[in-house]
Amino acid sequence: MKPADWWTPQAQQQAFRAVLDGFARPGTRVPATPPGAVLMFLSAVLDESVSLADPGGVLGADLRRLLLAPTAPAALARFVLLDGRRPPEAGFEPALGTLESPEGGATLLLTVDAVGSSRSEATQEEDVVLHLQGPGVAGTRTLAVSGLHPDWLARRAAWVAAYPLGVDIVLAAPDALVALPRTTRIEITAVAGEH
Amino acid sequence: MSTTHRSAGYAFGFLDDRAKKELRRSMLKAVCLPGYQVPYASREMPIARGFGTGGLQLTLALIGPTDTVKVIDQGADESVNAVNLRQFVELTCPGTRTTPHAGEATLIQTRHRIPERPLRADQILVLQVPYPDPLVVVEPSEERRKTMHGEGDYARLWVKLYEDMVHFDEITISHRYPTRIAGHYVIDPSPIPRWDVPKLHQAECLYLFGAGREKKIYAVPPHTDAVPLTFDDVAFRVEDFTDPATGRRFACARCGATDSFLDELIGEDGRRTHQCSDAGHCLERLNAQSAAQDTREAA
């Protein structure tokens, strides 16, 4: 698929179906074609009516314009794009929604190096292996992620502690994404590498 | 950006891109919050409110040219509402196929039934919903209902069910049976019979619910607990098709099935017969029987 194709309704429909399947089955790898999972996800769901925060400038000005979404501060935006390799800013608190309107909780899109169902698929030395349970998971599902700073998982645990409030997370590697809705229970079993 | 106009004069899927994207964002949040009614800006459709506009909008936001669609109305593919909705999909989504066979469909839009054949992981069932909120019977204020849902406070619904028990010795709800999803939100599963409620529990497929008039979308993801509200000492029961005269179960008059949800029909002579409610399922059984018959005759 050429990059330009992400801007056609049919490509966005196909992308959305793959993403929806990924949300319905947390931790499963949703393959993304070039130019990658970040754009595949955002082009399928964004338009002028929802806000996007990209405080680190992950997208670049041209793509940012094409996505049409107005910019909002990271604490208020419905979609927040951040570099998952770096720890979350100390004061960063995303929107968690309210008891009456929990859908106001943000969707965090974190860029990582690789996602896979086993360690061999995530080849970097700094990887975490996650064991997932909850809606959409039959029993337990294993997910290996490389290039995700472990502080994200600790902060997420706090953000999703008061269900139905919370954030829904998408981990975006260059070639695939995985979804971690707020309902997913995560147990971290291995953190390799140097910290 | 130019839109390709087709023979019907509409863009693919009838809805404009902004409508589809809003539906898509709402669907993702619905999956992240199993059973929670996500509000959305339900669009005007060229069919009347109450005839499946919520389900149709979901279908149109999901559908692509490679999909195969089945439309069910009370189990039947050939009733007026199902035929109209299916023709609308055919008109506005060129390239898509339609089918009466649940096994062939990638997308199934349904009113009041879940197919008998267990659905697979690569299928999505879209249910048309007239009344999305099970708390409406005990609380008229939507604001209060939203708080009750958020807190998982269903005490007044339990009282209502208990009153039923006191009057009738069992909970008398025949359809729209309140069902708790993933241990938190209670949903109105749309007017499906009790028979279909267990199919929501730990399923392989994704269930999406669309209420067009009430402007709500909700979901039951695959592998998710869906538990009908019942008291510990009175078990949840599905419809009983035992013939009181013989003590045996009624069978479908067409295909002979003794394990499907049956509709009772009264003929002109006043005789009662039963038929599978799921017409597609019944047809498949009949086809399989006639194929087996042909094989036997050829042998």
Automatic annotation (TrEMBL), chain A:
Q: Does the keyword DNA damage apply?
A: no
Q: Which UniProt key words apply to this protein?
A: Plasmid
Its BP terms in the Gene Ontology are: organic phosphonate metabolic process
User: Which InterPro entries does this one have?
Assistant: PhnH-like_sp, Phosphonate_metab_PhnH
Q: Does the keyword tRNA-binding apply?
A: no
Q: One Pfam annotation, family name?
A: PhnH
Xref: NCBIfam families:
PhnH_redo (TIGR03292)
Protein name (database record):
Phosphonate metabolism protein
Q: Which organism is it from?
A: Methylibium petroleiphilum (strain ATCC BAA-1232 / LMG 22953 / PM1)
From TrEMBL, chain B:
Q: What class of enzyme is it?
A: lyase
Q: Where are the transmembrane segments?
A: none
- Keyword vocabulary terms for this entry: 4Fe-4S, Iron, Iron-sulfur, Lyase, Metal-binding, Plasmid, S-adenosyl-L-methionine
Write down the superkingdom of origin.
Bacteria
Biological-process GO terms, alphabetical: organic phosphonate catabolic process
InterPro entries linked to this entry: PhnJ (IPR010306)
Catalytic reactions on record: alpha-D-ribose 1-methylphosphonate 5-phosphate + AH2 + S-adenosyl-L-methionine = alpha-D-ribose 1,2-cyclic phosphate 5-phosphate + methane + 5'-deoxyadenosine + L-methionine + A + H(+)
This entry's Enzyme Commission designation comes to 4.7.1.1
* Record GO terms (molecular function): 4 iron, 4 sulfur cluster binding; alpha-D-ribose 1-methylphosphonate 5-phosphate C-P-lyase activity; metal ion binding
Q: Which family does it belong to?
A: Belongs to the PhnJ family.
Role played? Catalyzes the breakage of the C-P bond in alpha-D-ribose 1-methylphosphonate 5-phosphate (PRPn) forming alpha-D-ribose.
Q: What is this protein called?
A: Alpha-D-ribose 1-methylphosphonate 5-phosphate C-P lyase
Q: Which organism is it from?
A: Methylibium petroleiphilum (strain ATCC BAA-1232 / LMG 22953 / PM1)
Task: List the taxonomic lineage.
Answer: Bacteria, Pseudomonadati, Pseudomonadota, Betaproteobacteria, Burkholderiales
